[in-house]
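Justification of resources, computational component.

The compute hours requested in this renewal are based largely on the per-chain cost of generating structure records like the one below. Each record pairs the submitted sequence with a full structure-token output. That output is archived, and it is also reused by downstream analysis tasks.
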Amino acid sequence: MSPRFSVAVPVALLVAVAFNPAAEAADPPPYRYTANYIGLLSPAGVPGGATGMRLTDSGSVFGYAPVLTGSLTVASYAAFEWKAGVITPQFTLAVTGSGTLVSPPRDVSSTGVFVGYDTTTNTAWARQGATEQVLPTLPNTAAGTQALQVNAAGTIVGVHFIQGPAGTIGEPIRWESGSSTATAMPMPTDFRTSSGVAFRDINETGVAVGLVNASPTLQRATVWDATTARFLPSLSTDFNGTPTRSDAVDVNELGALAGNSDLLANNGTSLGRRAVAWSADGVLTNLGTLSTRTDGIGSSDAVAINEDGDVIGSFTQYSPGNAILGGRGFIWEQATGQMRALGTLGAAANGTAQSAALGVNNQGLVVGSSTLYEQSGTIIRNRGARAVIADPGAGFVDLNPLVDPASLTLPNALQAVVLNSAFAVSDRGWILASSSTGCQFGNCLWLLTPYGEPLDPPVVPVPAAAWLLGSGLAVLLARTRRRRGAAEA
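The structure output for this chain reads:
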């Protein structure tokens, strides 16, 4: 378990709120989920919003939330872990005079290691519980360092900025757990122009994915391990033999990746972007799209891949007359090799509708968001976004009627709570969702747990990260610890 500590703020701000009424002995219950609010209350009991960053299979939720004063202004933000109905602040984060968070964390591991960078000092940091560390950098760093992704083993990847021929550019950097030094990561061997790097994800074996600006005008999907880097193949090449733009956005534990790539027709005309998958050894699969214009132009994007190789994302729907009718969520199933639309919660009179697949677990359960349209007589009304769920083999349905309404309530709320989006789902079937009503400063954060299931299930063991827990970093930590003010991260 990660070390924990409480932020030095009034006790009333640290009230743990878990609206989880005991399940009644009914047969069978009409609900599928119980909603558990995650956030900090003001001294007067007003709930604040929160940003969820990670949901673990052991039941922890990591994120950050505003700390509200009695006048309902933001004193600071607190990074937190929520577990079994108790929210434990980890450290504070600085805000501007308007109460806006200056430097939010960029990622957090399943072991509770938060990483990010301070925009005022241009330094990368890692924090776990009560311990913080400014991450070391490299001698040629000119304009700061950013920590962007971290895994459970404590491996962190990011970008350090150096002075290149055309100005300041970003290059990849890596920090290994237990090491007191930073390591410059390689670039692909066919890399020609230093223009910048972006990391999207890192798996538990240390494989990181993202993109490299292969030239000032071309981005290429890239995969790194500790010692190598390579461009991933694109769907097309132009008449000069240059691969088209691509981006890798997610990687599973087996090294399979999901992303997107631009597609060209035989005559070189752009047909738009397509969701793609790459095997661990780089074999490319075009996942396609489910709607195109009459000239073949279309668009789809992947956002996540599970351990079975199922990919989720969204595609653009077109009318027979080539009008854009909005995005639609999809799942591409490895078992069938086919993309399947997940549907929407109705449509406007002209066919416009919107949905997006945002999270998938290893059982193929998909969560996301969809606009709800309701018809009354001849009038169709847009009721706004709703959190949705699709069971394996099924399409999206509204999550709100599936949640016990007695649990989906907040103290001092001026409006009824409506879940607008569901964006993460664990292998236990627990869902991280948000609502835009009921909270001060941002969306409310909710954990939906199966109706009647306890909040303290058996813990799923995860490897402890060596970062910030001693080892070779003790000397470095003593040497580089930052001064911390009342509202400083």
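Confidence is low (pLDDT under 50) at residues 1-26, 461-489. The first strand starts at residue 33 and ends at 38.
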